[in-house]
């Protein structure tokens, strides 16, 4: 069948995103074909597009979408045609009208969750889940720092932390975004454009610092994040919105309190079908309990993926963005 898909033939800025027409084959053994109804837009997509995370070219792009199962390969017994499903860990190629995936890499969308919500929740929700339950296992009463708390991942983190009785200190770059984070459950918010983040964190924690900082910003916040940690604390730097962290002198970790730093990736935390199923079950359970929800504040046609990337990288978005094929 013939479909339209956004592809990259070279790496670079948003202008390298091209709308191509492709022939999509029938699903092979163990695979399914999904007709997309909503596609998630995430910062990792910009890393693939720019070449920060290299892909063999030419390539599709996008890791997250929701839709309807319209064809089954041999041996698939866990799904049927017409099922509503979503995925958030690839394989790449979600920016398209349809996609072929292994049956074990998708999750059924529960009743009461829309396709758009599922497409916007999967990758972001799965990210928060592995960060909060695996990278650093939070417990009730913990106090944490989460950067970019008004973004798509940040809003879910604020809600999930509140549900876990965790005190989340969120940072954002404007009073408007700070208010969004507060409404989503952040116990404290810091406007980094006019407040000293380290001083405020020390004030909030009685001078101790926090045991863990979750940082999806990268270069611009790296040393600040270290300075917010308590001795032997962990910095989980899980994204590069401001650029990658480079040129680190490991001795700084000793000087600042025998600190730990990890650079985790969702793909490593859901590499097996079993780990993926456990993660997505927790995400949809949190949705079913109304512990987390997602605000979809930007919608774009598939052909407007370039503008979606421009808005995301220009920090002109709040909540989640989706492409509508």
From TrEMBL:
Top-level taxon of the source organism: Bacteria
CDD domains with a match to the protein in the record: QOR2
Entry-linked SMART domains: PKS_ER (SM00829)
UniProtKB keywords: NADP, Oxidoreductase
Recorded GO CC terms: cytosol
One Gene Ontology molecular-function label: mRNA 3'-UTR AU-rich region binding
Domain Enoyl reductase (ER): 12-323
InterPro entries assigned to the protein according to its UniProt record, in alphabetical order: ADH-like_C (IPR013149), ADH-like_N (IPR013154), ER (IPR020843), GroES-like_sf (IPR011032), NAD(P)-bd_dom_sf (IPR036291), QOR-like (IPR047618)
Pfam families: ADH_N (PF08240), ADH_zinc_N (PF00107)
Protein name, as recorded: Quinone oxidoreductase
């Amino acid at each position: 069948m013939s479909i339209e898909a956004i592809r990259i033939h070279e790496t670079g800025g948003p202008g390298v995103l091209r709308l191509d027409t492709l022939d999509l084959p029938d699903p092979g053994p163990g695979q399914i074909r999904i007709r997309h109804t909503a596609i998630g837009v995430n910062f990792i997509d910009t890393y693939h597009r720019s070449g920060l995370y290299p892909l063999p070219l030419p390539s599709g792009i996008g890791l997250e979408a929701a839709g309807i199962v319209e064809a089954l390969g041999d041996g698939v017994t866990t799904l049927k045609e017409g099922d509503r499903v979503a995925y958030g860990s690839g394989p790449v190629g979600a920016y398209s009208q349809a996609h072929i995936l292994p049956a074990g890499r998708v999750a059924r969308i529960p009743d009461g969750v829309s396709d758009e919500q599922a497409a916007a929740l999967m990758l972001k929700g799965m990210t928060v889940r592995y960060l909060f339950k695996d990278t650093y296992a939070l417990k009730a009463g913990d106090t944490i720092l989460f950067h970019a708390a008004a973004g798509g991942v940040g809003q879910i983190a604020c809600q999930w932390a509140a549900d876990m009785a965790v005190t989340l200190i969120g940072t954002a770059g404007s009073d408007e975004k700070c208010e969004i984070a507060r409404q989503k459950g952040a116990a404290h918010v810091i406007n980094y454009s006019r407040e000293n983040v380290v001083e405020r964190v020390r004030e909030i924690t009685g001078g101790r610092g926090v045991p863990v900082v979750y940082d999806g910003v990268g270069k611009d916040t790296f040393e600040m994040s270290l300075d917010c940690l308590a001795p032997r604390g962990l910095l989980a730097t899980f994204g590069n919105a401001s650029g990658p962290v480079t040129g680190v002198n490991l001795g700084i970790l000793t000087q600042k309190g025998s600190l730990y730093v990890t650079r985790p990736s969702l793909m490593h935390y859901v590499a097996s079908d079993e780990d993926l199923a456990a993660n997505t079950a927790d995400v949809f359970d949190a949705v079913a309990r109304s512990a987390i929800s997602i605000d979809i504040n930007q919608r774009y046609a598939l052909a407007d993926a370039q503008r979606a990337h421009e808005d995301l990288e220009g920090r002109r978005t709040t909540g989640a963005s989706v492409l509508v094929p």
